[in-house]
Amino acid sequence: MIPEILATLACGMFAGAAVYVSLVEHPARLSCGMRLALAEWKPSYRRGTVTQASLAMIGSVLAILSWWLDKNAAWLIGGAFLFAVVPFTLIVIFPTNKQLESDELDLSSNQAENLLYLWGRLHAVRSGLSFLAFVIFLIALTRCR
Question: Which of 17, 22, 67, 94 has the smallest number of Cβ neighbours within 10 A?
Answer without folding.
Answer: 94
